[in-house]
Amino acid sequence: MSSLSCGILIRVKTEYVNPVSEPKIILIAGPTASGKSALALVLAEKLGGTIINADSMQVYRDLRIITARPTPDEEARVPHRLYGHVDAAENFSVGRWCTEAADVLAAAQREARAAIVVGGTGLYFSALTQGLAAVPPIPAQIRNDVRGRLASDGVEALHAELMRLDPAAAARLMPGDRSRVTRALEVILATGRSLVLWHEANMPARVDAALAAKVFLMPDRDALLRRIDARFDAMMAAGALDEVRALAGRHLDRFVPERRKAREFRRAQILQRHARS
Predict the structure, then answer these.
(1) How would you classify the pairing of strands 132-133 and 202-203?
(2) CA Rg value for the chain
(3) Ramachandran angles phi, psi of 214, nearest 5°
(4) For every one of its 277 residues, what pLDDT tens digit does the chain have, with 9 covering 90 and above?
């Protein structure tokens, strides 16, 4: 058990908490079903705070259930920002999130509210506290061409091409990492410059990590697995498959993040059914 130095006790291993006096910004991270959103809600009500989403899937409006977004009742209890405000057809970037998060943080400061940033996307937190490479937008023609070849030739072929064009970036990536290999190849094709070099010209950090209270929730593994199973069952009961079907009915590009999330959920459903049969 540890404390945020503001009169709130948290049941978490001490090494995962960074206490500061009178925190204006609190960063809460952890694995799926670890209790991040519940903790953020308690803190926001206690401190008069604003909750800011740092989960790359919860920004999308179409899949509230399977991305475990806060319920409408929870959102009504305290201000929630950057949840469900992006259409599934869009590719929402970490750079855009950083820009929007900076605006929300500034608003919270003006209103004298604690800013509670919560989510499971590590890249969002690192970009917020360490900065981000200012890579120009990728032209649609290049993006569509790379994604078409990903579908037809597979990620290994793209990694081989990346190794030829940008060996420094390719060496840092697993050959099967579809998202990162695709991104690195798009960048070198669009800009002629390695993603590694772009990372050396960062956008500034938006939060001084030394001044933020940082919490990483890490429940016991067996308890966490039980909670994940319980969440899956609750999602099914709440109509998760209807969400997936509705999204499929929009016939979006198969590579947009919401489509990937929906496919992952369907696979999880199949695996869960076999495990229980």
Answers:
(1) antiparallel
(2) 20
(3) -115, 130
(4) 454 544 444 455 544 556 665 668 999 999 999 999 999 999 999 999 999 999 999 999 988 999 999 999 999 999 999 999 999 888 787 888 998 999 999 999 999 999 999 999 888 998 899 887 778 889 999 999 999 999 999 999 999 999 999 998 999 898 999 989 999 999 999 999 898 888 766 678 899 988 899 999 988 899 999 999 899 899 999 998 898 888 888 877 665 665 666 566 555 554 555 455 5
SS (H, E, C) 77-137: HCCEECCCCECCCCCCCHHHHHHHHHHHHHHHHHCCCEEEEECCCHHHHHHHHHCEECCCC
Report the sign of the C-alpha dihedral through residues 187, 94, 132, 127, in that order: negative
What are the distances in angstroms from CA 206 to CA 49, 104, 105, 131, 212? 18, 11, 9, 7, 11
Please give the C-alpha separations between residue 9 and each of 5, 64, 104, 119, in angstroms, as whole numbers: 9, 29, 26, 20
Helix (H, G, I), strand (E, B) or coil at 43: helix
Please name the residue that has the structure tokens 């290994």.
156
Model-level pTM?
0.72
* Domains of the chain with CATH codes: 2-133+204-216 (3.40.50.300), 140-198 (1.10.20.140), 221-276 (no CATH)
Q: What would the two tokens of residue 102 be?
A: 């900076």
